[in-house]
Amino acid sequence: MPDIVDIAVSADGFKTLVTAVQAAGLVETLKSPGPFTVFAPNDDAFAKLPPGTIQTLVQNIPQLTRILTYHVVPGRWTQADLANVKVLTSVEGSPIPIYTADAFEVKNATVLVADIEADNGIIHVLDRVILMG
Predict the structure, then answer these.
(1) Over the stretch 86-112, which tens digit does the pLDDT of each residue have?
(2) Taking a C-beta distance cutoff of 8 angstroms, is the pair 119, 87 a contact?
(3) Mind listing the pLDDT tens digit for each residue in 49-71?
(4) Which of 35, 40, 25 is nearest to 3 (CA)?
(5) Residue 32 gets which letter from DSSP?
(6) Which of 21, 46, 57, 114 is deepest in the core (most CB within 10 A)?
(7) 129: burial class by Cβ within 10 Å (0-12, 13-18, 19+)?
(8) Domains delineated in the chain
(9) Cα–Cα distance between 13 and 7 in angstroms, integer?
């Protein structure tokens, strides 16, 4: 089974995320055994950011790394696992609110596709980039 990075590279819709992960030097981390749960914003999610945001972040690697690691939590969390969970702590260290009552949402983003299995974790596709704070 492919790992999280291989899935993102081979799937349509994650070019921006893959570029950001490469720029932040997180490829090896996300290829490690993990397991990790990645809340992965798709290209449309990154396109919703204000113009110039992505270019600014690629020039500010510490900030880019903080944002990307905010989208990753330790462990393998399926949608069913998260049914009774209110908050997860990201690899970055900040809490991520989880909502599963009506729709599956993570902070201010809706999960478009849940439970994509990877060798080293799970991917949930988001409709927007989640930001700390």
Answers:
(1) 999 999 999 999 999 889 999 999 999
(2) no
(3) 999 998 898 899 999 999 999 99
(4) 35
(5) S
(6) 21
(7) buried
(8) 4-126 (2.30.180.10)
(9) 11
